[in-house]
Amino acid sequence: MHDAGKIIGGLIIFLALITSPIWYNMASGKADYTPELKYVTTEKQCVMPTEYMRARHMDLLNEWRNAVVRDGIRVHTSHEGRKFNMSLTNTCMDCHSNKTDFCDQCHNYSAVGQPNCWDCHIVPGEVQ
Amino acid sequence: MEIDRRKFLTIAGITAATTIGKKVIGDTTDVEQIAGLPQKSPLVGHRWAMVIDTRKCREKSGCTKCIDACHSAHNVPQFDNPKDEVKWIWKEHYKEAFPNQEHEHVKEGLLEMPAIVMCNHCDNPPCVRVCPTQSTWKRDDGIVMMDMHRCIGCRYCIAACPYGSRSFNWRDPRPFIKNLNKEYPTRTRGVVEKCNFCAERLAKGLHPACVDACEEKALVFGDLEDPESEVRALLRENYAIRRKPALGTNPEVYYIV
User: Fold this and answer.
1) Pairwise CB contact (< 8 Å): B147 & A69
2) How far apart, in whole angstroms, are the C-alpha atoms of residue B214 and residue B66?
């Protein structure tokens, strides 16, 4: 192969460059932490099992949104048989009133940006 | 982490089993209902409508109780510039509210009389026909509802509504809300909003905020398909008109003049 050295060398430099953000994050320790969620409620159980909420809370929120706004169904029955008012502002944020230490922790960590929920829904303590 | 239906059901089942197990063993987990749920049973209707007795409304000049109650309940912003105005319920002079329903010798003072106007929750709503995203639609109980999540701000509905009942959020409304009701969302820049006949209050078993706020009982809300309802009684006993009836929109807000 002609110019094997140059090609392989070039490839290595290319790979190093495009993966540099990964190396940078690893070296600076920016990604090397586990998001820590603070729970500021005495409630022991969410409206669904914690594992489900962790992975699928966005689906649940969409389901709630559609049920309340489109179908007028406002009562959610949890896996434990408890009944909840389907409301982001009034139910979720009652327990998870600490958006910065709860929602933002994982959303910032996984770079899932800024969900536009908060353009309209009120974050406790954020507005006067 | 991917959870399929099977796995979710397994988790839910295990959690449920654990909960039941705990109870059998004697762990007293607190299972009482939480606050935030409707205390009263929701109001259910087949054709919600409103009757406004303008004779009673006139009694107290300068009263804005219904407007204030609605606008503070729904976080409606107050802009100084009329171009930015957002309104759910407001006052209009008779001659503007009811064009073509006056004549030369009409009752003295009637034309200048203010009438309370809002979304008419038409039976044949033109706004619903034109909405490209179905973000506004007519519910089974007749309420013409808005889904702010879907609104793309095209403003076709504003063009279609012959009553000017819809407002567009040209600016971020949050800084212009005087008293924030923390239980109700605000809107964001770029969506259309209007009166929703207090769908959120009906769900709690309450009448609309404007109806409850009116001390003269000039605003009456009820089910038009229920012959025993107060609105039907009022319409039976009084002659009532509607706004721009010739357009065929079938407004469901009636005015006793």
Assistant:
1) yes
2) 6
